[in-house]
Design a protein that fits this description.
about 425 residues; about 30% helix; nine-stranded mixed β-sheet; alpha+beta; 2 domains; Conserved hypothetical protein from pyrococcus furiosus pfu- 392566-001, domain 2; single chain
Length: about 425
């Protein structure tokens, strides 16, 4: 079984791409998604976040939510707004935002390779969110949200993708924020075969974003394999929708933390406790971290610089060659030195007192929840690098939850993978 293969994508008609494409399902709240679809009846959010078409008191995981997604999918396919390509293709996919451009490959990737660890992951999933994607895939009989994969830059593949993107695009759509999404069909069989062989020769691919989607695809594949006495391994459910980019082209933003209370401490008691592990310096402006072991903190309307004492920061020499490169990540350092011992947060996946804010929302995304009284304190972290991510995955280790926020985001709805 090859690592990836071409597939017949379900896509919007060329003139409907901008009307259909939508932000990833998991970057918007329910209310934000509802606002996004006002005046946009064909938005893919009606499929990826179908609860927005139901009363607010309907639980987002209720059976009627998934039925609503199927209803919308059937409607868009029946009207010709969505239709399947006549045969399997690869697709070159380019995203432009400001001066940043990255060109990748849309393909379906092997569930078997994911299960065996050749497609490497670096995060655990939240059970309720994974269950949600399982029900979504199973009910729609389709994978509608691509998994973002990374590969170590490869001259052959990079050249093929650059060559494909020299032609006029088959899709040219502009999303909110003037982010341009372009798509090219790669239909030449010899080129597709070269892509398949080139990627198959790579030792690994890396899940950058989409751990819930890839885990859900694996579960659906296992269920369908068990229920299929004539299983061959070639069925569409044995693969999951993905978009892969060279690791050097990918951009990781910080992924920050906000906490609801100070664990029973007064503001002064909390600041005093911080002195045990950090040099604490008030700042007259929103503090932007510049290096590992340094954090911004927003507390009671004021920013602080937190510099972790040097003896608490593992050196690269201490962690290089070990089985645990996780120790040097800032997300780990913050948990080990502050969130756990001072604020009593031990399980970031399940503790309701902590939440996470992507760096794309800026410092206002941290100040707002604190100023509104929803949160007591916010922490800004230094971004993880792609080298950090791959080192953790190669060591078969797991990053702390919500360690990476990739930008620009892939668009949902430009290409989906049918399982029938």
């Amino acid at each position: 079984m090859y690592l990836i293969k071409p597939f017949a994508g379900l896509r919007p008609a060329r003139e409907r791409a901008e009307d259909v494409m939508a932000p990833p399902y998991d970057v918007l709240s329910r209310e934000e998604a509802k606002q996004k679809v006002v005046g946009h009846p064909w938005s893919f959010l009606h499929i990826s976040r179908p609860e927005i078409g139901l009363p607010d008191d309907v639980d987002q995981y209720a059976p009627e939510v998934y039925a609503k997604a199927t209803e919308m999918m059937d409607s868009l396919r029946g009207s010709g707004i969505l239709s399947s390509d006549p045969q399997p293709y690869y697709y070159a996919y380019r995203i432009w935002v400001d001066t940043h451009v990255q060109t990748g490959l849309v393909a379906v990737a092997s569930v078997e390779a994911y299960d065996s660890g050749r497609i490497k992951r670096h995060e655990l999933t939240r059970p309720e969110k994974e269950d949600d994607r399982v029900r979504q895939i199973d009910t729609l009989n389709a994978q509608t949200g691509p998994v973002l994969l990374a590969y170590k830059a490869n001259k052959t593949l990079d050249t093929i993708l650059a060559k494909a993107a020299e032609a006029p695009p088959d899709v040219n759509a502009i999303a909110e924020g003037d982010v341009m999404h372009q798509l090219w069909l790669i239909t030449d069989k010899a080129t597709c075969d070269t892509i398949t062989r080139t990627v198959d020769a790579m030792p690994s691919l890396y899940v950058a974003d989409g751990h819930h989607r890839s885990a859900a695809a694996s579960r659906v594949a296992a269920q369908r394999k068990a229920a299929n006495p004539n299983h061959t391994g070639d069925e569409p459910y044995n693969y999951f929708l993905s978009v892969m980019f060279a690791h050097c082209d990918m951009h990781i933003f910080d992924y920050n933390r906000v906490v609801r209370d100070l664990n029973g401490l007064t503001q002064q008691e909390f600041l005093d406790r911080l002195e045990e592990a950090f040099q604490v310096t008030p700042s007259t402006h929103p503090y932007r971290t510049t290096c590992r072991g340094e954090f911004g903190m927003y507390l009671k309307g004021r920013w602080y610089r937190l510099a972790l004492h040097s003896n608490r920061i593992p050196s690269d020499a201490q962690t290089a060659g070990t089985s645990n490169p996780v120790a040097r990540l800032d997300a780990s350092l913050l948990t080990e030195n502050l969130l756990d011992p001072i604020l009593g947060i031990k399980d970031l996946r399940r503790d309701a007192r902590i939440d996470f804010v992507g760096g794309i929302r800026g410092r206002s995304g941290l100040e707002g929840p604190v100023d509104r009284g929803e949160m007591a304190v916010a922490f800004a972290l230094f971004p993880v690098s792609m080298d950090d991510l791959m080192a953790v995955a190669d060591a078969d280790e797991i990053m702390p939850p919500k360690s990476t926020w990739f930008e620009p985001k892939l668009a949902d709805g430009l290409v989906s993978h049918l399982l029938d």
